[in-house]
Write a structure and sequence with these properties.
With 192 residues, the chain is α/β, with parallel strands linked by helices. Helix 1 crosses helix 8, helix 2 crosses helix 3 and helix 6 packs across helix 7. The chain has 8 helices and 5 strands. The structure holds adenosine monophosphate. Adenosine monophosphate (AMP) binds next to helix 2 and helix 3.
Length: 192
Amino acid sequence: MVNIILCGAPGSGKGTQSDFIVDKYALTHLSTGDLMRKEMASGSELGQLLNSYISQGHLVPDDVTLQLLEQYIDSLPKDTKGLIFDGFPRTLNQAIQLERLMKKRGDKTAMLIDINVPEDEIIRRLLERGKTSGRADDNLETIKERLKVYHEQTRPVDDYYELIDKYVRIQGLGKVSEIFGRISRVLDKIYK
Ligand code: AMP
């Protein structure tokens, strides 16, 4: 599998853009947030543990996150072309573990695409989404905590991929179709 990572603050449009990418490039969308919310909805013990972190805007511990991710990857059909990692990796350790896992499996991450959106716009979008999303973490207090966590723990992931020459930053403001155009220019080179 040749995979890509969509990175950016919560509310930067990763989920929206992933839907377009799935359609055009036939990749498989893997959102660790979605995986976790599904587990929470099942009411399992693991779901309750996940909820205790997510409802506070804190990251779920790496070992739990990586186990969920590996289980999902193992369940994929053998002919899967590639994954869009959305919301993963979120810590430097997750990035290092991901690269290790890819090497072990004979897969690779081709590029991290960082969708850049100013913070006031992020807060506006998430508050708007909170009116209908039903998500316990789309409220002002938790949004601020999620942004703090993003700056402190997820930014080093960008630096890591920049260091290994797999980093590209794109402007995340504008129409959804314009942003997709910017992403497509990167992906057209990877999936020729
Ligand atoms: P998201 O849907 O990507 O905005 O994620 C929602 C929440 O799920 C985050 O604020 C975290 O609490 C948790 N989460 C999602 N992905 C990860 C991850 N890779 N590592 C740790 N926690 C995560």
